[in-house]
Structures are given as structure tokens and as C-alpha cells.
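Q: C-alpha cells for this one, please.
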Amino acid sequence: MAGQSSAKKKAPAKKPTAKRASSGRQTQSEKKEKHSRQVAAIIYFALGILVFFLSIIDGENVWGTCHDVLFGLFGFTGYIIAPIFIYIAICASTDRPIGAVKHKIWQTAVLLILLSSLLQILCIGSVPGENFIDQWVHLYNDGVALNGGGIASGFVGWPLLAAFGKTGAGIVTGLLIFVFVMLITGSTVIGFLRGVAKPVQKIKDEYDIKVERKEQERLAKNQARFDIDVDLGPDPVMPDHPVSSPKAPQPEPEKPKKQRRKRAAFDVPLDGESPAPEAEKAPFTVTIPELGFETPPTPSKPAAVEAAPEPPAKELVPDKESQLRFAVDEAGDGYVFPPISLLRAPKNTQNVDASAELKGNADRLVDTLKSFGVQTRVINVSRGPAVTRYELQPSAGVKISRITGLADDIALNLAAAGVRIEAPIPNKPAVGIEVPNKNVDVVTMREIIDCDQFYDAKSRLTVALGRDIAGNVTLADLGKMPHLLIAGSTGSGKSVCINSIIISLLYKAKPEEVRLLMIDPKVVELGVYNGIPHLLVPVVTDPRKAAGALGWAVTEMLKRYKLFADNSVRDLEGYNSIAKNSDELDPLPQIVIIIDELADLMMAAPNEVEDSICRLAQMARAAGMHLVIATQRPSVDVITGLIKANIPSRIAFAVSSQVDSRTILDGSGAEKLLGRGDMLFYPVGFPKPVRVQGCFVTEKEVEQVVGFVKHKDSADYDEQVIEEIEKQAVAEKGSKNSGDGGGFNDKDDMLSAAIECVIEAGQASTSYLQRRLKLGYARAARLVDEMEEMGIVGPFEGSKPRQVLITRQQWLERNMNQNETETEA
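A: Here is the predicted structure, written as C-alpha cells:
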């Protein structure tokens, strides 16, 4: 048994020994084969070097004979024999099988013969000679003289020339060369097509960049062309007293004038008097101290120019719309639109050489995403005044969330202050990455107002906003919005946006068409507009009177609906069309209510202000009344759910947090804005906000436009509206003193403690207040309901705790403001 067991143990040891022996023989065979390949590689390499020197040096004796034989056999293609030998040496020195190397040898040999044949077919053609031997000798001699393909070309080129002729033989030989090149290099048809497509795509991209650059240059020229009229001299501003003309005026030859609205304002005298013909042509200087600008005299032309005959110019007659918009009646009681020259002309800062920067940023974007495993390609680049959007198309299977999560990494690689990602771009299969420009172009008020889109807009409530991310003019129609909510932090551009809206209305509408009701609790923002003819009442600065003004607006809205019902019309447009043909009815103007700071009003009279705004937002559109509300603090106690639900159009400037952005836009994005007019414009009907660089209007420009309007037409305040606002303000102050002012007098004593508890916990529930404050269920539930009404906690969500909507800092500010209001009362 012991012997059997030992035999069993020793038996398996034979198999590893056999394997080792087989492995040893295989290793020796591989070493021998590898040695043979290396020897062959050395020989081929040496032959390549020898043939190389043999082809370039024409020596003597045997060397010279070998040189002639080389070119006599292969002709001009003898120069590529040396690279072929070196290529075979490289193939032999690698770990490729011997069979593969042999295939390379015969493939390159056939390729060499085909190249010689193609050279003979295209350069020489048929070979002269009386017999077969003479033709071969002629091939050899031509090869030595480097005039053909040598003797090698006769094996393929000769038969093909006889069978297909020169053209057909060239095509067939070229295709055979293509086949053998593919076999030697191991390429595929797909790889070949991709290799061909890359340079074609590169050429196409360069062409697209050139086209885009030319388009940008064209747009820049169009933007810089603010006055395409024939020079009429400086625009005269008429003073209160008549202008005297010189005794001997020098007449100037008439020039054709292209009529536009901004020039038509001066086709008739502004003070209502018709000056003499000599005075119209005389140069003069007029200075108005109130406006602070001077029109220089028009220089007279030399006599030689005056004596030169001119062809008769065809007078251009302005269209009816232009005559209607800018004509001043002879009685002098019409509204004079301010000239465009009061606004600052823009500087042409369009960077024509920005294509290199855009191309570099696009490449860095693609490389950055590629380093994170995201394959993309740039399909379009849109350069705006402050931001450039790179449109990237991700590869199939790439989730958009992978790109949006790399915003900080993209900003780091581009050395940018921050990037905003729009994923996806509406109506495009691409993701937009918005990168700030190194040089920001200022969008002036003049370039937006002085454009065809603004002139051709039929609505009197068309306002200028700025330029979008592609540099296109962006306008807004308050009549279609129909109400607008503007929010953003300090210095982001809210007040400038309000000023641009008001200035646009002064350039677009007459006082009998549009009236303004301005509410400015900050006192200093809108006071400059006091005295313009569009105002219904002076700018309201008292918060109590502001609540009364909103109450009057609600009453006016209801009166208008009563008039509409009596005349069987549905809106203001239908009523005014009837009033034009009736002697009993007077047309009603559209009313725009502008509130510069909603937060101050909400602290002073939250209930009355919110109720009035909600009623106006719900019903005032058909009555021709529109709200423009701006606020600095976009918190839930200022922009309540009711106000947001009834004001669909929003403009968000730069804010400090994503929470504030969600309060304004119901989504993130505003926290990524740059400030200084950079906005997200989200009108009703748009799927996503549009990024716009707001137009900039300076205080000096506002003063000049307002001064011109007040100088030509005085304010016509409505005394009945002023009295009604005063009455409502007194009534609301009385209701405040009686305890119905939105304070905490009628609230539960435990309300403050309950608010502290839920803010500390970050969530609210009835059971939590029962445990912390030792209250009954009914009282705790009532406290939760009161906090929901105050906008502190969110709505009921089933079994989940309610969300807390304010921070401790906001709660402390709210308490402090409430105490100050009660002390003043």
C-alpha cells in the first residue's frame, strides 16, 4: 500500500517536466526566428543605405554601371527603392511574423512596378521602335536619362497602353496603386474616408470663420452708421425768443434729404412761428442754459462750390407713419419728440481680430471636456457685447448633467470669472457655454433707439432693453408682456433699466397716448422726471401715498371696464377705435405704473400693496394699464407667490445666491451674471430666459432728454387723481393706527418663539412645535398656518415637514423694519 501510494505521488511530476521541455524548445525556436529577422533587417537596412547613395551619386567603373542599371530598370522611381528597403527593414525588425514580412516585400515590389508604369504612361506614352528588342532598349535608355519608368514599366504599362489607351491605362494603374498602398499600410476604406474628410472639414471651418468674420465686420459697420442722412448741419434748438438772421445770408445749394423721424422733428419751427426764408438758410448759434449744450454755426461753402451746377435732386418724401410720428402742428401745441442727438453716440469698439481668441477658447473648451471624458464639438460661436456663447454638440450617449457639473472646471481652464451653461439651447441640439469677454462693449441707448426695429414698431409701449448674446437688438413690448418684474442686487443695473424704459417711452409715445404713474419710495431715483407731460401726478415718494396711488389705479381700471361694457367692446383698443369716430367719447391713454422699489412698499403697507398689485396684474391688461415693478431684495416676503403668479414677464439682474435666482426666475442662472447691465430676460411665452446686455443711459443723457421735453411741453397733472390718492392715503393711515396694518398685534403670543424654533430646525411641523413649545395640537397647527400666511414656511406636503422659506438674517431684518414702522406710526 505504501509503494502504491508513493507511486501515485510521483506520477504527476512527469507532466510539468514535459511542459518545460516543450516550452524550452519553443523558446529556442522563437529566439532563432527572432535572430533571423534581425539579420534580415540589418541586411535590408544596409541595402537601403547602399541604394540611396547609389541613386544620388554617379560614380565611375562598376559604381557608375550599377547607377545606370538602377535607373535603367526603374527610371525615375529608382529614387524610392532606398525608402522601400528601409521600410522592409523596419517591418522585419518588429515582432511581425515572417509571412507578414514576405507579404510586405512582394507588395512593395508590385507597387514599385506600378509606379514606374504610371510614370511611363503619363509622361512618355507609347515607346517607339522597329521591333521588340529595340523598344526594350529604348525603355532602358529613357530610364537612364530619367525620362520614364525604365524596363519595369514595360511589364504593366505596355499592355495597358495597348488595351485601354493612355487615359484608360492611367486610370487603371492609379486604382491599382491605391489598392496596394492600402494593403501595405493596412488602412481601411473608412479610415481613408476619414483622413480625406479631416482636411475638407478644416477647410470648411476656416471658410465659416471667414464668413462669420465678414458678417461681424458688416454688422459693426452698420452699428457704427448712426446718421446715413446727407449732412444738414447741426440740429438747431430754438430758444424762447425768436432767432434773428444776419443781414446778408449766403444761400447754400439744396441737397437731397433722406427723411427719417429724428430729422423730421426740425423740418418745422419748434416755437410755432414761421421764420423768413432767409432765416431758415442762415447760419446761427443757439445756446440754452437749461440743457447745457450748444449748436455751433454751420460753415458757409466757397463760392466755387456754389457756382458749380448740380443736377436736379429728387426730393424724398417721408412715409405717412414718419410724418405722423414727428410732425408738429402749426399752432405749436403738439408734442415734440426729443432729437436723437441728445443721446451719446456709441464708440465703434468691435474687435475684428477676436476670431483668434474665440478659436482658442473653443479649442480649450473641447480639450477641457475631453479630459473629463466628455466628447464634444463646437458647432457655432456667438459673440455678444459682454459674453460669448460657444455652442457645443455632445457625442451620442453623453448626459447633459455631466457637462453642467463641470462649470467651475471650465471657468478654471479658461481663466474666466465664471461661466454659465445653458443646457440645452432652445430649438438647437447643442449646449451653450457662456464665457465673459475680456473686453466688454458698452451698449448705448442711442444705438438701440436709432435702429429700424424701434422705428418700425407699431406699439407705443415698445421699450429698448439692449443687445442679446448674438449682438442683435432686443426690444420689449409692455403691451404684450403685459406686466414686468425686475429684480437684482445693488449695482446690477436695475435703475439704468428703469431709465431706459422711461426714455424709450418719451421717444415713442405722445402724452395723449401713454401716461405714466411713477412710485419712488427711495425718493432720489425718479425725481428727475417731475414735470414731463406724460406724468399723471408728480412722482409719488411717500409709501402711504404710493398705496393710495395703487388703489386709485384699481379704481380707474374698474371705471374703464364699465365704459367698455357700456360700449360693447372688450379692450382699450376697441374703445379708442370707437372714440375716434364719436364726438361724445374721448380716447383713453395707456397707463404704465412704474414702481422702483417694491420692498419699501411691502414693509409699509404689505396687505394693501399686494392686493392692489395682484388685482392690477390679473385684470389691467385689457384696460390698457401695465405694471413695471423693480425690487432690490428678491425674497419671498417681497415677491410673494401671488405677485409672481400674476406677473409672468421677468428681468433678473445679478443676484448673490441661487435661492434669489429661483425666486425671480423659478430657476437658477441669475447668480452667474456679471453685473453692470447683464440680465436674463424672461418674457411670457419664452421657454427659457434670454441673456441680454442692457443699454446704458447716463444721468446727463436723462437730464438732457427730460430737459428738452419739459422745455417744449409742460406737465398736465390730473388734480382729481391727486385728490383721490390723498384721500386713500389718509384712509389707509387710519386703518393702520387701528391695528390693521400688517403688524403682529393680532397674532399669537407664541408666534415669535415658534418662528425661532422652525428657523433653527430648518423645517416646520405641528408635532415639532408641540414638543418644543409644549403646546396643544390646535394651537400648534394654528401657528403653522399663520407662518404660512406670512410666507415663512411652505405649503402642506403630506407627511413631509414643511420647508422654511427665510433665513434667520431675513427674519431679524423683518422684525427690525416692523418695529421701526410701528414707532413712526
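A few notes: The CA atoms of residues 569 and 575 lie 6 Å apart. Residues 1-15, 224-332, 737-746 have pLDDT under 50 and may be disordered.
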